[in-house]
Amino acid sequence: MAREVRRGREVPVYIEDEMRSSYLDYAMSVIVSRALPDVKDGLKPVHRRILFAMKEAGLLHNRPYKKSATVVGDVLGKYHPHGDLAVYDTLVRMVQDFSLRYPMIDGQGNFGSIDGDPAAAYRYTESRLTSLAEAALEDIDKDTVDFMPNFDGRLKEPVVLPSKVPNLLVNGSSGIAVGMATNIPPHNMGEIVDGLVALVDDPELPEEDLFDIVQGPDFPTGGIIAGRSGILDAYRTGRGRLSVRGKASFETLQSGKERIVVTEIPYQVNKASLIEQIAKLVRNKTIQGVSDLRDESDKDGLRIVLDLKKDARKEVIMNQLYKHTRMRTTFGVILLVLVENVPKILGLRELCQEFLNHRHDVVVRRTKFELDKAERRAHILEGLKIAVDNIDEIVALIKKSKTVESAKNSLMKKYKLSDIQAQAILDMRLARLTALERKSLDEEYLATIKEISRLKTILSSKARVMAEVKRELSEMKQIYGDERRTEITEEEDEELDIEDLIAEEEMVVTITHRGYIKRMSVSSYKRQQRGGKGMTGVITKEEDFAEGIFVASTHSYILFFTDKGRCYWLKVHEIPQGGRLSKGRAIANLLSVEKDEKVTAYVPVRDFGVQAYLIMATESARMKKSALKLFSNPRRGGIIACDLAAGDTLRSVALTDGNQDIILVTGKGKAIRFSEKDVRSMGRAAAGVKGMTLAKDDKIIGMVAVKRVASLLCVTENGYGKRTRLSEFRVTRRGGKGLIAIKDTERNGDIVAAKEVLDTDELILISSSGQVIRLRAKEIREMGRNTQGVRLMNMRQADRVIDVARLANE
Predict the structure, then answer these.
(1) Is the pLDDT of residue 338 over 90?
(2) Which residues span the domain enclosing 271?
(3) Tens of pLDDT, residues 104-116
C-alpha cells in the first residue's frame, strides 16, 4: 500500500495499481512520442521537429549552410526538450547517404562514415534542408495539417507534415518502443510512386499486381536480396525476413592470380568491422586461400579487395564469407506504424492507402485554403474595379468626409461595398489609377476568377482530388526517381551446406592395417619414373602398415563395405586431412564398425539419385547386384549390404549403370569376363549368385567393371605388373574357371590388385611398409595375357605391394 497526496490530503493507493498506471503512461509516451513513425509522413517527433525548425529558420536548399549547433539549439529550445546528443545524432543520420535512401538534410563537414566513424561535434558541422525535405514540408503554411502547442505552450508545432514525399516507404524507419518494435526498409522512389499511382487509378488493384510494381526494398548500400518469399510475407502480413548479401566480383590479374572485389555490403553493416572480421577469420585459418586483404574504398565507391593464393577456390571463399561474416545478414521487416496515434502492423497496400488518404486530406485542405484566399482577393478586386470606374465621385466623397471612418461608411452606403472592399479602396495607391494599372487590375481579376473555378473543380469530386495527388506524385518521381540499387534474385537463400564451404578437389584417402584413415591432396605426391623407390606416404607404427588407398572428391560420399558384408556412409570432407607423415585417425572414431569388422571396399558416390547399381564380389566368388538408391540412408550402425556364408568375406564393390561387363581376377592370376546382366538385381539382404569357379587354394582379389576401351592392369605383391587389353578377355557366362591374366610365378608372387586403366591415367602404388610411388599408366607396357610383366616398384626386403589406386586426369 502506498500513499498519494491529492489536494493536500493523503489517499491510499495499491502499489500494483500505481505501477500499472505509471508504466502504461510511460509506455504510451515512448510509443507515441518517441519510437514509432506516423504512417502519414513516416517521421518520428524528433525528425519532424528538426525539419520544421530548419524551415522556420530559413535553412532551405538554396540558402547558405548554418552551423548544426544552431539547429540543435532551436530544436531543443522550441520543440524538443531532450538531450542535445539525441537531436544531433538524429540530424546526422538524416544527412548520411548510407543510412537514408534519400537524405533529408544536406550537410557540410564530417557527418560520419560507413566505417562507423562518428560525426564531428555540432559546432564544426553545417547543415541545411534538401529539396526533398522541402517537398515534405511544402504547403505546411496553408492549413494542410493540424498544429499543437509546443512543450511550454509558447509556440505551435505540426502534428504531422504534409509530406508530398512518401517518406515512410522510401526512407524507411526503425525504432524500439515498449513491448514493440518497428523496422521498415527503404524503397525506390520510382517503384513506390508507380505503386501509389496504380492504386489511385484502380483502388481495387489486386495485391499481386501491386507487388509486381514494388519489387522490394532498395537499400542505400545496394547489395542483393535472395528470393522474394520474405518480401511477399512482409508486404502481405507486415512481417518478413530478408536475406541480404553483399555484392562481389572476381578479377584476374596478369599474373594469373585472382582476387575477390566487394563493391556493395548489406545495409547497416559497418565496413571497418566487416574487414576486421574477415582478417580475423583469415588469421585463424577459418578462411584459407587469402594472401592479402585491403580497403581501396574512395569517393568513387566502396571497394574491399581480397587477393587469393594461386590454388585458392574463389567460389568456396565467397561461400565462407557469406557463412562466417556479415557479408550475409538478415533484415527482419516489421511494418509497425502509428495510425491516428494507435500502433498497428500494416501490409504494403494498407501503408500506401494510408499515405494516399493523408495526401487526399492535405490537397483538400490546401485547395480550400487557396480557394478562400482567392475568393477574398476577388472580392477586393471587385471593389477596386468599382472604385476605378467611379474614381472622380469617390475622390470627392473622401475629400468631403471628416474622418476615415465616415469616408468608409459613405463608400459602403453609396456603392454597396463591404467593409473589406471599402478599406481596400481607402488603402489604394494613386498609382493604380494609371491606364496600365487599370488594365493589370482587370487581368488579375480575370486570373483570380479562373483560379477560383479551377479550385472549385478540384473540390467537386474525390476523383479530381486524387488526380491532383497523382500529378504531384509523378512530379516527385520525375525529380527524385533513380535506378534501383539493390538487386533481387529469384533464387531463395538457403542455408549453406558444409560442402559449399569446402573446395572440391581430388583427395587420396589412405587406410592402414590398424584401421587409421586420412586424406591428402593428390598434389602432395610427386610424379616419378617407373622403377623409382617412391616416397613415404604414411608413417606407421610397429606392426602397422598401409593397407588401402583410393581417390575421391571432397564433395563425394564414401560407402565403406566391410568384410562382414555391412555398409557404412561417410562424406570425404569428414575424413581428417593429414600430411604425408601423419597416421590419420582411427576409423572406429568415424564409423560405428564392430571390433572384429574390417573395411575391405570403398565406393565414392556423388549422387544417390542416379540410376545405378552396386556390384559386389566376395572372396569365394559370390556375386551380388543391388540398386544404389537402397544405400542412400544408412543408419549410424551400418546396414546390411550382402548376406555372407560362413567363412566368406566381401572383397570388392563397384558402381555400374546396369549394362557393363564384369571381370573377376583371382590371386593366382586367373580372370573371367561376363555381362552384369547375368546377375539379377537383388535386395540388400540377399546372398548373391556364383560368379566364378575357383581352384582349391585360390580366391578373388579384385573386380573390374568395364566402362570403356581400356587395359587391365595387374600388379603383384613383389612389385611387378603389366597391362593387357580388355578385348583379349572374351565374354563368357558367369561361373566359369576363367583365363590366364598374368603368370603366377615365384618372381611375381600372387596378384594383389587389378585395375582398369587408360594411357592417360596415373597410378599410385603403396607397400606394406608405407612406401608410395606415383607413375603414369602409359609407362607400363601392354602385354598379352600369358606373360609375367615388368618391374613397377623396387621392393625392400620383406616388403610387398598391398594396393594400387588409379588417378584419372579428367
Answers:
(1) yes
(2) 247-326
(3) 999 999 999 999 9
Q: Do the beta carbons of residue 174 and residue 183 sit within 8 Å?
A: yes
* 628 CB-contact burial (10 Å; exposed 0-12 / middle 13-18 / buried 19+): buried
295 and 397 together in one domain: no
720 noted as active-site residue: no
Indicate whether 786 and 670 sit together in one domain.
yes
Contacts 24+ apart (CB under 8 A), 33-36: 34/175, 34/177, 35/175, 35/176, 35/177, 35/181, 35/182, 36/175, 36/177, 36/180, 36/182, 36/336, 36/337, 36/338, 36/343
Residue 588's pLDDT is 66
User: Which CATH number does the domain housing residue 571 bear?
Assistant: 2.120.10.90
With a CB cutoff of 8 Å and minimum separation 6, the contacts of 118 are: 112
Q: Can you give the CATH number for the domain in which 303 is found?
A: 3.30.1360.40
What is the model's pLDDT at position 416?
87
pLDDT at 169 over 90: yes
CB atoms under 10 Å from CB of 482, counted, come to 12
**Residue 446 pLDDT more than 90?**
yes
How confident is residue 131, by pLDDT bands cut at 50, 70 and 90?
very high
Last residue of a domain, one of 306, 326, 346: 326
- Tell me the three state secondary structure of residue 84: helix
pLDDT band at 539 (very low <50, low <70, confident <90, very high): very low
Q: What number is the average pLDDT over the span 362-391?
A: 91
Smallest CA-to-CA distance from 799 within 754, 756, 760, 752 is with 752
Q: Is residue 217 one of the residues assigned to a domain?
A: no
One domain for residues 291 and 382: no
pLDDT for position 163: 94
Catalytic residue (choose from 14, 23, 26, 124): 124
As a whole number of angstroms, the distance between CA 593 and CA 573 comes to 19
Mean pLDDT on 453-472: 95
Number of domains in the chain: 3
Instruction: Work out the percent of the chain whose per-residue pLDDT is above 70.
Output: 90
Does residue 634 share a domain with residue 553?
Answer: yes
Rounded distance, CA 388 to CA 10, Å? Answer: 75
Last-in-domain residue among 421, 448, 480: 480
Q: Is residue 658 located within the same domain as residue 741?
A: yes
Q: Could you tell me if 458 and 538 lie in one domain?
A: no
**Which CATH number is 425's domain given?**
1.10.268.10
C-alpha cell at 380: 477586393
- Nearest Cα to 591, choosing from 669, 658, 511? 511
The torsion of the CA quartet 396, 402, 408, 413, rounded to 10 degrees, works out to -70
Contacts of 80 (CB under 8 A, 6+ apart): 45, 46, 49, 50, 87, 151
Three-class secondary structure of residue 260 per DSSP: strand
Domain annotation covers residue 2: no
pLDDT of residue 523: 65
pLDDT at res. 708: 80
For residue 10, is it within any domain? no
* Rounded distance between C-alpha atoms, residue 166 and residue 655, angstroms: 63
C-alpha 676: how far from its chain's center?
49
Residue 295 lies in a domain: yes
How many C-beta atoms lie closer than 10 Å to residue 403's C-beta?
A: 8
Nearest CA to 224 out of 542, 591, 486 is that of 486
Instruction: Please tell me whether residues 794 and 761 are part of one structural domain.
Output: yes
Nearest to 723 by CA among 768, 776, 651, 660: 776
Helix, strand and coil content of the chain, in percent to the nearest 5, comes to 35, 25, 40
In this structure, how many other beta carbons lie within 10 angstroms of the beta carbon of residue 441? 17
Choose between 738 and 581: higher pLDDT: 738
Residues 556, 622, single domain; the answer is yes
Dist CA 662 CA 653 (whole Å)? 11
CA–CA separation, 456 vs 461, rounded Å? Answer: 9
Question: Which of the pair, 508 or 120, is modelled with greater confidence?
Answer: 120
Is the pLDDT at 127 greater than 60? The verdict is: yes
Alpha helices in 557-699 (DSSP H): none
pLDDT band at 168 (very low <50, low <70, confident <90, very high): very high
